[in-house]
Amino acid sequence: MGGVFLNNREKLWYLQPAKLWVEALPIGNGRLGGMIFGHVQEERIQLNEDSIWYGGPKDGINPDGSRHLEGIREMLFEGKVEEATRLTRMALFSTPKYYNPYQPLGDLRLYFHGQKGEVEDYRRELDIKNAIARTSYKVDGVSYRRTMYASYPDQAIIIRLTCDQPGQLNFSANLNRRPYEGETGRLSADSIWMSGECGKHGVEYACVLKAKTEGGTVSVIGDFLSVEGASSVTLLLAAASTFRESDPLAACQLHIAAAEQFNTEELERRHIQDYQRLFNRVSLQLTEQDPLDDLATDERLKLMQESHSHMDTGLMELYFHYGRYLLIASSRPGCLPANLQGIWNDSFTPPWESKYTININTQMNYWPAEVCGLSECHEPLFDHIERMQVSGRQTARDLYGCSGFVAHHNTNLWGETRPEGLFPTCVIWPMGAAWLSLHLWEQFLFTADKDFLRGRAYPILKEAAAFFVDYLVEAPNGQLVTGPSVSPENVYVLEDGTRGALTMGPAMDSQIIHELFTACIQSSDQLQVDGELREQLTALLARLPKPQIGGHGQIMEWLEDYAEEDPGHRHISQLFALHPGTQISPHRTPELAEAAAATLQRRLANGGGHTGWSSAWIVNMFARLEDGEQSHTHLNHMLRKSTYLNLFDAHPPFQIDGNFGATAGIVEMLMQSHAGELSLLPALPSAWPQGAVSGLRGRNGYTIDLKWSDGELSEAVIHAAGSGTCRIRTREAVLVRSGGVDILVNREHSVIEFQVEAGCTYEIFRK
């Protein structure tokens, strides 16, 4: 079997079935997801469809909010934190408080008959080069093989079962959704179905499974598919809900009928070609062949987790590629965006309802999208922001008396935007839409697509900014601040011991608005529209609080230099200006960069970075500070402390944002482009002395390939999508050539500058 399985940097593989859900292997096509356990006699494939959410949309804006808003602000300016919190909870919190959860579609179970002998040569893998899961084993001299994938072009999960001796496949298959079963039954002589609903006003769903055999027979007995004496079988599974389809069962039948037009080889080829069109855009090699490449993934991970000093660069390389795989598998055009668990959730009451948490987690899911050349995977987020605008306008108007649109720290299937929850540390935080909107600006920065800016990005940015034009209020010191708001999800302590979360003008709010107004000003300038708005936002921008340095040498989290209840808090919100924002830079603002480093060290000294996604954010922030050793330390920490055996990120429990944040962090270590220049190997750790990466994307339409040795850049290839001035930061003295001709460059300190033409490629060599 050895030749069939790919290089260990491109697969997860194991020598035993999964015992737990976080050991199962994920497949997905953005809309449909499956978790494959790999059991021999009774296989379980846990199923998800991205629109299976409990309950329907609600109009829960507190009717008493707008008349109490001014009073709450006055209390906060006067330091009456407890009174303001009490009134805010009653007047601004929603009615009802919580959004409903994202839920499983159900389970597909395969019961194999006649495979009770000793199992030999067992192996299961997730081949992330081809997005295919495989299980193989031998029983009583017969070799069995299962191949499973979720096809985007054919909108179905395909399961191929084979054996190497004729007629040895005997099994039954069933669909169920315990404990919330709907209806199940026979659809045809070779198909079964399952349907149901997700609570009052909730979506209705359907799922269909069809069997196609080579040899043997297929029949339906009760609500089971029964296959007897087959040599190979292809199972086609489709699912749909009323979120998209008026008749989900008919939609499933159409998907399966369309997929049936292709034979097994064609289905697999269509799937691989579609997937590789995205996955193959980036390659990464951090180390040569390693003896650890011969270890199964779980053994390799356990070796890291049991030895504090052991490092596994090959595993880190796999982890990077796995993050790209997971994004492609959970976020494709026409689908919903990746939620807290991507699309993979086995619980009807999942942690944090498996929502879209937009005070960092959803945003982190999309940090790898542009830098890894996966702009298409960003589209579901943009679609969802547009879905949120309808609710967001109502929330802005009815709760705050403002124009524009606003969202708080969570949203859901329906794009709801009202404050959600019961905890003052997070509920009233009106920055969700603003931060999300910056993702459209980021796509423009990477693609330089003015049609996208004009038609899609700028209208959303402008409407997000319009809310703050109305919402900002003058503080006693004359600055313009937000509030009531929080610094997610932290608590400060006043001198008299009073603890509070609600405040006016937390640092993160001002930093997000700085990026939002700047994006609007630059968009307006690029498109040559809205001159008056540009002037208005420029004037407001000048009155926002700037990042301030506190008594510990840290970036202040609030307007005042309050003590923190938890100095090691998992959120490091005051460093938004460092990452993903752009206000803090080691080259442009060295004093603030030094304070940002002090902020990180203070958090870490007090136990910070203890959750998976928080560690991932820290990787990115140290990379922005050009501290590759610390970035690498925290990548190692994630694998040691925050990673399950299937390489899912552990918050704990499972949250997918850590996977995505780590993948983005590895790119930030190798290449950055946020400061108006391409910075090559800005945070290369000593543990990666040589390597190569290709296909990374930089802002202004650049594609970058890099090679390095002995810890220094050896060569780079820059492809320019547009014409203009290219600025490159690199420690080494370099030559630039295009088409074999040396290019004239200007050099100032560590930055070179030269002119590029659209469609041309530039080679950079170490002198």
From TrEMBL:
The name this protein goes by in its record: Glycoside hydrolase family 95 protein
Q: Which residues form the Glycosyl hydrolase family 95 catalytic domain?
A: 264-670
Q: Which residue range or ranges hold the Alpha fucosidase A-like C-terminal domain?
A: 672-764
Superkingdom of this entry's organism?
A: Bacteria
Q: Which UniProt keywords apply?
A: Hydrolase
The species this protein was found in: Paenibacillus plantarum
Gene3D superfamilies to which the protein is assigned, alphabetical: 1.50.10.10, Golgi alpha-mannosidase II, putative glycoside hydrolase family protein from bacillus halodurans
Question: Which molecular-function annotations from GO does this UniProt entry contain?
Answer: hydrolase activity
Record bears the keyword Membrane:
no
Q: Which InterPro entries match?
A: 6-hairpin_glycosidase_sf, 6hp_glycosidase-like_sf, AFCA-like_C, Alpha-L-fucosidase, GH95_cat, GH95_N_dom, Glyco_hydro_b
**Segments forming domain Glycosyl hydrolase family 95 N-terminal:** 12-245
Q: Does the keyword Hydrolase apply?
A: yes
